[in-house]
Design brief:
By secondary structure, the protein is an alpha/beta fold. It has 8 helices and 14 strands. The strands form 3 sheets. Strands 6-7-8-3-9-10 form a 6-stranded mixed β-sheet, sandwiched between helices. Strands 2-1-4-5 form a 4-stranded antiparallel β-sheet, with helices on one face. β4 and β5 form a beta hairpin. The longest helix has 16 residues, at 164-179.
C-alpha cells in the first residue's frame, strides 16, 4: 500500500524550477531515503508534502487523499531549520506542540515524561530551552515531532548536530518506529545514513530525480563502480583524478562514480594518499 504518491510535481520560483517533474511513491511501513546535495530540491518538495507550499503542476496524495490541512495531524515533521522557543520550559514546549496536533495537556505531559526518560533527560522538565546544550535541544525538537504518535514522519537532516552516541540512539528509535508500522521519509545529503537504515531511495539533483528504487536494486544496478573515500586532510587530490564523477562531497568524505569500471583503484588510492590520510577506501 502506498502512503505517499508524488506525481509529476513541478515547483518554480520565478524562472527557477526547484522541483522539475518529480514522481515517486512511498510504501507503507518503510524508511524512504530522500537523498541529494544541498540545493537539490529536497526541502521544497517536503514543504509541498506538508502543505506549506502548493505545487505549480502535478499532484501529491497522502493516505489516499490530496494533501491538505486535514492530513497535518497525522504527520510528524522535523524541519532542517530547527525552531524551539528558547524561553519556554521543556514541558511547556512539549505541551504547546502536542496541543497543536490535537493532544490534551495531560496526555502530552505523560507522553513527554516517557520520551524524556528514553532520551536520558529525566528531570529536565522545568529547564528553559536556552539552558540546554545544543544536543539536548535537538532531542527536545525530535520529541515534539513524534509526541502525537503520527503514522507518517518526515525527518529533514535529523542527525545534524548530534554526537556519534546520540546519533546511534536516534537511529535506533527511527528503526523502532518502523517496526511499529510507521512510514518515514529520511531527507539527507549523506549516503552512508541512507545505506544504514533506508529500504528505498530517491535521489534528486538540480530539481530532478536522477535515480530511484529499492536500495538493494539501486546498488545492484550500479555494480562495483562506486568508491567511498574517507580521509583527514584536504581533498585537493580530486583534481588529479580522471574518469570519475563526484556523487557527494562533504568534509572528510567523498563518494565517487568510476566512469571506467576497469580503472585501477590502486592508482586512485596512491594519488589520494599523497594529499590526505585515508581512513576508508571502499569500492561497491
Amino acid at each position: 500500500m502506498e502512503i505517499l504518491k508524488v506525481e509529476n510535481v513541478v515547483k518554480r520560483f520565478g524562472d527557477y524550477a526547484a522541483n522539475d517533474d518529480i514522481s515517486f511513491s512511498v510504501p507503507n511501513g518503510r524508511i524512504f531515503g530522500l537523498l541529494g546535495p544541498n540545493g537539490a530540491g529536497k526541502t521544497t518538495l517536503i514543504r509541498m508534502i506538508t502543505n506549506i507550499l502548493i505545487p505549480d503542476e502535478g499532484s501529491i496524495t497522502l493516505f489516499g487523499e490530496k494533501v491538505g490541512a486535514a492530513s497535518k495531524n497525522n504527520i510528524g515533521y522535523l524541519p532542517e531549520e530547527r525552531g524551539l522557543y528558547k524561553k519556554l520550559k521543556v514541558t511547556e514546549q512539549i505541551v504547546y506542540f502536542a496541543q497543536l496536533k490535537g493532544m490534551s495537556k495531560p496526555d502530552a505531559i505523560s507522553e513527554g515524561k516517557k520520551w524524556l526518560q528514553k532520551f536520558g533527560a529525566s528531570g529536565w522538565e522545568n529547564k528553559k530551552i536556552q539552558e540546554l546544550s545544543k544536543g539536548m535541544q535537538q532531542k527536545i525538537q525530535f520529541l515534539t515531532t513524534i509526541i502525537h504518535n503520527p503514522d507518517f514522519l518526515i525527518l529533514d537532516e535529523p542527525f545534524s548536530g548530534f554526537d556519534p552516541i546520540n546519533t546511534e540512539l536516534l537511529k535506533s528509535i527511527v528503526l523502532e518506529m518502523k517496526q511499529q508500522g510507521k512510514t518515514i521519509i529520511l531527507s539527507t545529503h549523506v549516503m552512508a545514513q541512507v545505506e544504514e537504515i533506508c529500504d528505498d531511495i530517491c535521489m534528486l539533483n538540480k530539481g530532478k530525480v536522477v535515480l530511484s528504487g529499492t536500495l538493494r536494486d539501486v546498488k545492484n544496478s550500479y555494480g562495483r563502480n562506486q568508491l567511498i573515500i574517507e580521509y583527514t586532510g584536504n581533498d585537493d587530490f580530486i583534481n588529479n583524478l580522471s574518469d570519475i564523477e563526484i556523487l557527494h562531497r562533504t568534509e572528510g568524505r567523498l563518494e565517487l562514480k568510476l566512469l571506467d569500471t576497469q580503472r585501477d583503484t590502486n592508482e586512485i588510492f596512491h594519488i589520494a594518499s599523497q594529499h590526505a590520510t585515508i581512513t576508508k577506501f571502499d569500492l561497491s
